[in-house]
Amino acid sequence: MRIDIIAVIPELMTSFFNNSIVKNARNKGILDLNIIDLRQFGLGNYKQIDDYPYGGQAGMVLMPQPLSECIESLTSQRKYDRVIYLTPDGQTLNQKTVNSLSLLENILIICGHYKGIDQRIRDRYVTMEISIGDYVLSGGETAAIVLVDAISRIIPGVISDETSALSDTFQDDLLSPPVYTRPSEFMGMKVPDVLLSGHEKNIKEWQDQQAFEKTRLLRPDLFKKWQEESDFPV
Ligand code: ADE
After folding, report:
1. Could you tell me the distance, in angstroms and rounded to a whole number, from the CA of residue 208 to the centre of ligand 1?
2. Right CATH for 2-152 from 1.10.10.10, 3.40.1280.10, 3.40.50.11310, 3.60.140.10
3. Whole-model pTM above 0.90?
């Protein structure tokens, strides 16, 4: 899979991408990740990429020409399955969207900055708009980190124990059951006996029950959705 990211401040992302599961995916040759500095396409001696908005609100807007030239230079080299603009206006990211994106060949991600990007770029090139939550970030770079991290960890072969990604919270619309590691007793608190029993069927039943209970308690909205979509008896 190839992911290209257009960013105003690429350095914000490089450290994360060089020190995470994303790094594993890149080292294994499963993910080809490229960050393109929008400033390269800036106008004039100062490499200008933003300007004041028409209409007079505060803040700056990323100009259409540098973005257009950048996008055209990329799309002339390959066809993208999705051109994603990260914005609080977009559809809220969830695991289903992450799963479907992880199956694609080529994705182009545009990080906004300041007040956002000129609407004409959205109208002409963007095929999908994604928000990572109902709050406003100072730039799309942090959102791109979230999106790329979520995608890369489920590309087959990235995590050595693939079942670990599959049993994640949200992978089946339920929260994950509690997890424990050694020691079996800590500050007087004991790991539930069933987890020490070695009895696989009982352990699975306990984990499922914990997942139901936890979801019912903490995320009744998810639990309701899960109940509606699943025919698993509780
Ligand atoms: N850019 C600014 N805020 C954002 C958000 N909540 N999600 C995605 N991109 C953003």
Report:
1. 34
2. 3.40.1280.10
3. yes
Q: Which of 132, 146, 149 to mutate to test the pocket of ligand 1 (most atoms within 8 A of CB)?
A: 132
Answer yes or no: is the C-beta of 131 below 6 A from any ligand 1 atom: yes
Among protein residues, the one with the nearest Cα to ligand 1's atom 5 is 88
At 63-86, the pLDDT tens digits run: 999 999 999 999 999 999 999 999
Quick one: three-class SS letters along the chain?
A: CEEEEEECCCHHHHHHHCCCHHHHHHHCCCCEEEEEEHHHHCECCCCECEECCCCCCCCCEECHHHHHHHHHHHHCCCCCCEEEEEEEEEEECCHHHHHHHHCCCEEEEEECECCCECHHHHHHHCCEEEECCCCCCCEHHHHHHHHHHHHHCCCCCCCCCHHHHHCCCCCCCCCCCCCCCCCCEECCEECCHHHHCCCHHHHHHHHHHHHHHHHHHHCHHHHHHHHHHCCCCC
**Which ligand 1 atom is the nearest neighbour of the CA of 136?**
3
